[in-house]
Each structure stands twice: as C-alpha cells, then as structure tokens.
Amino acid sequence: xxxxxxxxMRMLMIVAILTLCAPxxxxxxxxxxxxxxxxxxxxxxxxxxVIFGIFAIGFNILFGLTGYLSFGHAAFLGVGxxxxxxxxxxxxxxxxxxxMLSVVIAGIFALLIGYVSxxxxxxxxxxxxxxxxxxxxxxxxxxxxPITNGETGLQLTLEDPRVLGVSxxxxxxxxxxxxxxxxxxxxxxxAVGPWAFxxxxxxYLxxxxxxxxxxxxxxxxxxxFGMMLxxxxxxxxxxxxxGLNSRPYTLAAFVISGMYAGLAGGLMAxxxxxxxxxxxxxxxxxEVVLMTILGGAGTLIGPVLxxxxxxxxxxxxxxxxxxxxxxxxxxxxxxxxDFVVFVIHxxxxxxxxLTLGILFMLVVIFLPGGLVEGGQRIAGWFKGRKSSEKSxxxxxxxxE
Amino acid sequence: xxxxxxxxxxxxxxxSAYALIALGLTLIFGTLxxxxxxxxxxxxxxxxxxxxxxxxxxxSYEVIDETQKDFLGNPLKVKTPYVESWFGPEMGGAxxxxxxxxxxxxxxxxxxxxxxxxxxxxxxxxxxxxxxxxILVTFGLxxxxxxxxxxxxxxxxxxxxxxxxxxxxxxxxxxxxxxxxYPVWRIVYFCFSxxxxxxxxxxxxxxxxxxxxxxxxxxxxxxxxxxxxxxxRFTIMFGIAAAVAGLAGVMYTPINSPNYHMGMDFLVLSFVxxxxxxxxxxxxxxxxxFMLGILExxxxxxxxxxxxxxxxxxxxxxxxxxxxxxxxxxxxxxxGVMEE
Amino acid sequence: xxxxxxxxxxxxxxxxQALSEVNLxxxxxxxxAIIGPNGAGKSTLxxxxxxxxxxxxxxxxxxxxxxxxxxxxxxxxxxxxRVFQTPEIFGDLTVLExxxxxxxxxxxxxxxxxxxxxxxxxxxxxxxxxxxxxxxNMADKRHMHAAAMSRGDKRRLEIGMCLSQEPRLLxxxxxxxxxxxxxxxxxxxxxxxxxxxxxxxxxxxxHDMHVVFSLANRITVLAQGTPLVEDDPENIRGNxxxxxxxxxxxx
Lengths: 400, 340, 251
Prior knowledge:
Chain A is mostly helical.
C-alpha cells in the first residue's frame, strides 16, 4: 500500500496509531491521582512532540543518510517561524499560507547556506554551518530588528494590517490562528470516569503533517536518491569515480532537511503565533542532533522516538522539584532521604540541561546507534542464540 | 590616525583571547586529530578558577569589635578574611587585591589535571572514531561542564576585579606621540598572551619534546613507528592546551565578568579563527585570532556601523565564509590536513 | 590514433619533477601495461588521467576530447572507469546495492533527483545489476554487507561495478597488490576474460611482472617520470634499458 514494503507500512501504521491516539496513550493516569504529573496528554506538549518529531525526521535525512553533521539547523526552524508570523501579520490568520511560506523561505535559506557550506565536508562543514547559524542568530537578535523585533521576538499586535481578515476581533482582541475557520486552539475535552482526555485541533493538524512527513521520509530512504545519499556517507571517492556528482545530492538532502525544519518552525508559529531569536541558537541545533542520535541516526523511526523521548522527559524533569522528591523518598530514613534528594537535585528542575548533556555523552559513548539499536540489542538477548546468526544478515539493511 | 590605532588596541584583548583558545584547539587537532568542542568550556573553567580563588581568599570569620558600635549601641560584628589575620591587614589585603593574577598559579595545576582527566578518561577512546562522534561527545561534555558551573555559581555574571594598581587607564598613545587612553589591564592581558604564545612556540621549537610533537603533527604514524611513545606526549600536550585556554580565561575575568556560557560564546568564534587560520597551523591560529579581533573592533566603530548597521555582529562570520570559499585551506593551512 | 593520447605531460610537486614529457598512446581494445620502479611516476600519471591531478603541461585526450580540467565524475561519464589499489566500494551498502549504483550512474547521469519511487521498482537497473553479479560469480552474496567480504571478493565487486558502467577504458591501479597467489591468478583470469569478451580497452599499472606478462599486449616502461620505452612484451623482456631501470645497473 502507498508503494511501501510491508515492513515500512507496518512502521507507518504504528506511528499513525501512536500519534492519532496520543491523547489517550499519553494520559494513562486519572486526573486526580498522584501520578497525574506523568501525564503528557496536554495540547501544547503533544504539539511539541510532533513538531520536534518533524524537525528530527528532516535532520535525519541529512545526517542519518549522508553523515554530514550540521550544527545550524535551528536557523531554518527560526526562519520558518518568522515567515509564518509575518504571514499572519500581513495576509491572513489561516495557517496554510503561513506554513507554505515558511517551508519555501526555509528552503531558499537552506539552498544558500548549503551551497556555501557543502563546498567543504567533515568538520569544516560542521563549523561552517555553526558559523552560519550563529550569524543568523546575531542577525535575528539585533541586526535585523525591523524584521525580527530583536530580543522581544516577533508577535502579533492589534495594528497588524491583515489583508484577508481583520486586525482585531469584535471584542478587541487579536484573532487566533485557524485552518479555514477551525481554530487551532480549540480543544474538545472528553471525560471518562476520572480521566480527562483532550483533543486539540492544532495537535491533530501537526500529527497529520507528521505522518505525511514520515511517509515522505520513508519514500526518500527507499528511493534511488536515498541510496545515493547513503553512498555519499559510505565512500565519496568511489562515488565520484562512478560518474556521480556528490554535491547536488548532498545539497538536495540539505535543502530537503532545511524545508522540514522550516515546516516545523511554521507549525510552531501556527500553534502559538510568535517567533524569537532563541529558537535559532546553536544549542537548539544541538538539541535536534541529540534527538536524532538518541533515537538512532539513519533509522526511520529513530528521530521520532528521540524527539518524543527528549520532549517528554524535559517536561517531566522540569516539573519535579525537591518537594516532589521528598514525597517520593519519604519511605526512607530521614538522613538517607535527604541524601538521595541532595544527589538527585542537580539533575531535575532547572538542571534538565545537565541531564541532557550527560545523556548525550552516554549515548555517543555507549550506544551510537541510539534507542533503535538498544531495542535491537534487547530483542537480541531475548531471542538468544538465534540472533547471533541473524545479526550478520540483519546488518545488511541499515535503513531499518 | 588616533582612531585607527585605538581600534587596533581595542581589538587586541579579544584577539588575544581568540588566539589563545584557537592555539589550544589547533594544537589538539594537529596532534591528536580530535575536534574539541569542549575547549570553550576549558576557557570558562579557567575564568571560574579566578572566581573560586577570589572567594577562597575572601573567606572570613566574624569578630566582635568592642570599639565600634552600631546604632543601638551593641558591639559591631566585623568580618575579617583569614588571609588578613594570617599575613596582617596590609599584606592580606594586597593578596586579596591580586586574586586574579594569583589565580594563574592556582589555575595551572587544576587545568592541567582537568586536561589529563579529559584526555585519558574520554578523548582517548575517540581517536579512532568518526569526527562527527568526536564533535558530539565533546559537545555533550561542554554542556555538562557548563551546567555544573551554573549549578555551583549561578547564572549571573560574577564581578572579578583586577588589582587596584592595574585597574586604571594609561595613555598608550604617548609612545606614538598621540593621545590614546586605554585600560591598563587590557595591556596586561595582551602582554600576557604574547608571553604565553611565545612560550608555547619556543617550547615546540627548542625542546626535544616539542620536536617530537611537531613531527607527530606532521606524520603521526611514522613517529609512532620510531618507537617513540607519542601517546603520552600527546596527553601532556592536551594538558598544556587546557592550561593555555584556562589561563586565557583567568586573565580575561576583569575584562568581562565571567558567566557560565562565556565558553560557548568564545568557542564558536575560536573555531572560526582556527578555520580561517588553517586547521593545524599554529601561526595561522595566532595570526587569524588577532586579525579577526581587530577586524571586529573596527566594525564596531560608529562610522562604519552607520554605513552598514550591525556589521560588527556578523563581520567575523562573513570574513570566515569568504576566506573558506576562496582559500579553503585557510590563511596558513598546510596541504593535506583534513582534505577529502 | 589511440583511444587515449597523452602528449608531453609534465607535473611538478615543489622541487620534484614527478612527470616530464610523458607521451603515451593506448590503442583501442588493447591491454596496455604501464610499469616502472617505485617513484617512477606511475600513480601520478594515473591521477592525471582521471582528473584527480591536473598536469602542468601537455594534453590528455580521450577519444578525441580533452579530459583536462574536468572533475573525476565527468571524466568517468566520458567512459573511463578506475579500479583502485585498495578496493574502493560502498562498504555500508549491500553487494547488490553496490552494483546498482553504477547502473544508475550509467542510466541517469551524474545527478538525478529520483526521490519517490522505490529502488526495487527500477526493474531495468535491478536486472542489470543481478546479471553483473552472476557474471562476477557473487550472486549468492547479494545481500551481504560489502565491507564484510574478503579482499578478493571486494576486488571482483569493484571490477564488476566498473564494468556495469560499460566503460570504454578501464584503468587498473595495481589490482593484485597485496593479494595471495591464488587470488592474483583469479584476477588475471577475470581480466583476460573481460578483455576477450568485451569491447573494452584496459590500461593497467602493475608491479608484478607475472601479471603484466600474462595480460598485456603493449607495455610502457616509466622511469624517473618519463617513458623509457614502449614496445611489445617480447621486446621489453630483453631490453637492457629496462633491466637497468629496474636493477639500477650503470651501463
């Protein structure tokens, strides 16, 4: 179906079920229970899951397939956000033109930056993209203030000259983003016993776009183009002596992944119409690198898993504070309880970045293949000796 | 003419910092073949060595001074730093005042130790792995170091003044028969970095150790074949590079109050410096460091900013991109280093 | 007029004159060997032919067109394929995928944004690659990781990849270097078979005289960056100049 192999179709179906049923899956605990803090079925959080999923899927097309490590992809996300907000300001509150513009503008940016950066490979490429990203950040933060509104960030105002639509609603507030009239923020709440499930229009738009992006990335992975990209990673010398020009291949991959980033940025602005320079900082680029690697670079499902994993734990970790910890460890003797809380304290709340950094190092050191590889290893243990015979043939399909 | 000279002077301190960090980066890259994204963090840790020493020196105990009363008539509690009670108020006060320069002595063993631990504990395992992995793991390490510092010292910049005697301004223009007033500490910083750079170069030039390292930079395998234990030497080299970055950080604290993310800010620019200078070229790193520092300072002149607004924010990147496109090897890069 | 005409080619690296006044004419459908002692400039010459180096002087014409100043991939698209000293293959890809890539390069040219259809929907490519694998006797290894194969198999795969491009000139750079005797003989047989059955010219750089004299029907001897003699194998064997170049005897 859809021109996919059975195995890929199954994966697409799994992702589809997971995303479409996310409001249920992510809210397993009744609202009043103590465990409700582990729920993640809130519209803004779920939106973040899928938007960063799209970002990581796109990044993986570049990094996972060609091995070119870009440290500047957040710039495209930021560009996408700015374009979308400008579309809201000038044209209409409908998200369709905004998202389209953000993809196009991010694509143009990626073409320019990629054209220059891809003249070099390896670490030079990483440093060049890093320099471009930092330059874009500086431009957005201060130089181009008329376009980006500098430090404050670009926001909607009551004076926006919207061509199709009104500057302000009848009650004097800023109009909200919508999809042909369907408001992105509209949420349907369903109460089932002690549970409350939230179905948000914006989330479902993002989820559908994620599925489309995921489907497209499967097609790219399985296409001759995708094979060429893997060939670039494997042996560029052989590629050039096989009559293939590797530069347009890498540039195409760069632009496609830049457009994915722009799409993610556009969606971000569509859910919450503001854009700030901090989205373009190179630490933000580092985050998407981390998501991709944590999930499993070069695998199809990896980036989605990585994005979900990091955004989920970011949310949980930031919510935990010392009081929560004390309540968890209250069963321990007093001194020990304090000690445990003291040890864990640096990693929670505002310490999330520390945890993230440690996680990053551990994954690169011990699990370069990310969660997907980890899963395969665990599956291997269960299958026992059978897997050792299979591992040779299993390896032949790196785009699993 | 005055204005031009002033801008050159203004660029020197930043240029010195770029040059020192870039020197360590390119030394590590040239010898170990590793791209160290945590090098900026070493600069930052150096700066926090100065902060730490300053805090240690200011450790005080409280005494009740019967001669002084507060407004209720109670005896006043007076804080006295231990140093002052040990060395007497004058000597002790001077020690506290000179905390930043003293921190050099404090930072050298710490930085070398950190460098050793980093190399032996982490980097060593990444020699044979892809450059992307090296970048990623050191990037992770940089985040960790930065967050640890933030945990202990907070997110706000910490004031670390230079010694009283060096905190004023001097008319450096007098030498040229002109009137250029310039902070003394920045002159100190420049001289200090020239000293360090000179020391590194002569160390590499005139010692057997340096000779082996230079040979190793040119051709690692052959030197290894000669039966020379280059690995140990490279570990020491890493320690030295860490110390250089750390000292650059120590001395930079009076110029810019240290905060936890200063390392990252300098790292990106130092990478640009290394690339512009030529990967693996030590003179290139120094030259490019000063060049870009001065260029940045020129770009921030009001006359230039009024023509091209915001040029000071992006000039370094623009120059780097132009140089990389026209001279992919950098200003002084050697052939065959990091080329496909 | 040969298919490959090298005229007065010179190349200098700093103080070293690597090549000077090299003239070489490779006839169509011949097997032409270029031999010479270490440092004679064989590899430099080869690199000038495939676009990795640009000579300082002279001209290199392939089939009446100059190759100078063209990128390696362009020269390859003109019909020159190169086999490396150590096999250069796509180690992370399967053997079948390795074989399909040159087929795509032949069909679609240097770049084609063919991003939507599946690789395996390209029946013509698949068939061609499978046939070539059969011919190379490695059809049973088609789903193996290329990097996991033995050196001899990698060499076969590389030669097969070059052949799937249907090149007019196949350049081999010491194809048997570091091989065991049995593998060397297999490679000789394979190359013989290729030159007999196909409409192809082979130029080979080789150290091993056994390989050279089993394959070549024309030999150029290079010494100190310049051709010493070009002749048929029988005449090369007894040529005193060649002996001198190899053994370093002064006349």
